[in-house]
Write a structure and sequence with these properties.
about 375 residues, 2 domains
Length: about 375
């Protein structure tokens, strides 16, 4: 029995899947999203929402192209989904201070190439920009254009946008099998029904390779755990995103401060550990000593879809016609998500994309 027929089925309702469905509908496609759990309940909910790769000059051009376009897309998109849903995703241009100083030449070259504002702040200028910063820090790179979105609110805002646009997102509906005939995808099967479509997009995050593996060569995507903690402070206690030695602080509008994150190759284990909490808390207090007086309100872990060099797959699978992949964004799902969704929609819709798709092809050097 065919329960529904649409143009595109998106498997996975994380940020990438929801953004992809929205972009496809804007191109006129009828779209259905199927999610095995809760929409946005995995790495999307768990992430920090910084609208920049950490140390972007360390990443290949493929990542920076998506980030560059995402930084242009998000201000308007945040307004649109707020208007459509009534939920503010809290787009805030808080800027980012980077305390690491050993790659200044590479950072300067990156900023000039991508036309990003960047300057060195020292002494009084640095303390004026971020009074909460450890006074022992004498200098930092300042990127005033870097913004953030608040992941849990972003999920609610985007889900509301999908409802407003009449895009069906079925939660707790796991795809049990892909329907493939003569090398072409025909749809998917769940425990309850069969859904027919000529195009299927796998946007299953860390689980994407497992979905594809029974049918064709899987993408090189693996789960990478990240643990984070949350402090509850007063609004304005911290003004800027602070990054140092791979640890970061993100100030939210209501005074909460997110501190992250670990990088752990532990398969599909999402357990949290006191040792990680203490490590993250110690790193946070070393950056902003006032945090020592705050309790840790929450501690959690998420599984990132790890890929080689952080370059995602945004492509058609070479072995199965109509089967597409939009996954493998590793630590940068939010900032890369908007442009990734647009590229995916362009590829399926036969539209010449603004970004070279060869970077993200299945056989590219991920």
């Amino acid at each position: 029995m065919v329960d529904a027929t649409v143009d595109v089925i998106v498997v996975g309702a994380g940020l990438i899947g929801m953004l992809t469905a929205r972009a496809l509908q804007q191109h006129g496609a009828r779209v259905l999203i199927l999610e095995r759990g809760k929409a946005g309940g995995e790495s999307t909910w768990a992430g920090g929402g910084i609208l920049s790769p950490l140390y972007p000059w360390r990443y290949p051009e493929a990542v920076n192209w998506l980030a560059h376009h995402g930084q242009k897309i998000y201000p308007q998109m945040a307004e649109e989904i707020f208007a459509e849903s009534g939920v503010d995703p809290e787009y805030i241009r808080s800027g980012m201070l980077i305390l690491d100083q050993h790659e200044n030449d590479a950072a300067d070259a990156w900023a000039r190439h991508w036309q990003m504002q960047m300057e060195m702040l020292r002494g009084d200028a640095l303390q004026m920009q971020e009074p909460a910063l450890d006074p022992g820090v004498s200098s930092a790179l300042w990127l005033p254009q870097i913004a953030q979105l608040r992941n849990p609110r972003l999920i609610k805002s985007l889900a509301g946008s999908l409802r407003q646009r009449k895009i069906s997102c079925m939660e707790n509906t796991e795809v049990m099998a892909l329907e493939i005939e003569s090398g072409e995808v025909r749809g998917v099967r769940t425990a309850q029904a069969r859904y027919s479509a000529g195009n299927v997009v796998i946007a299953g995050g860390a689980w994407s390779a497992k979905i594809i593996q029974p049918y064709a060569k899987p993408p090189r995507i693996q789960p990478v755990k990240g643990q984070m903690i949350l402090f509850r402070g007063e609004p304005g206690m911290l003004r800027s995103i602070i990054l140092s030695q791979g640890r970061y602080l993100i100030p939210r509008r209501d005074g909460r401060i997110l501190a992250g994150s670990t990088l752990e190759y532990t398969a599909f284990d999402k357990s949290v550990h006191d040792s990680a909490l203490q490590d993250l808390r110690s790193a946070a207090v070393s950056l902003a000593p006032q945090l020592a007086g705050l309790a840790v309100e929450n501690h959690w872990a998420g599984l990132r879809p790890g890929s080689e060099q952080g370059v995602p797959y945004i492509c058609r699978h070479p072995e199965i016609k109509g089967l597409y992949i939009n996954s493998g964004h590793f630590r940068n799902g939010v900032i890369l998500g908007a442009a990734s969704a647009q590229l995916m929609a362009d590829l399926i819709g036969g539209i010449t994309p603004a970004i070279d798709p060869a970077f993200y092809d299945f056989e590219a050097a991920h």
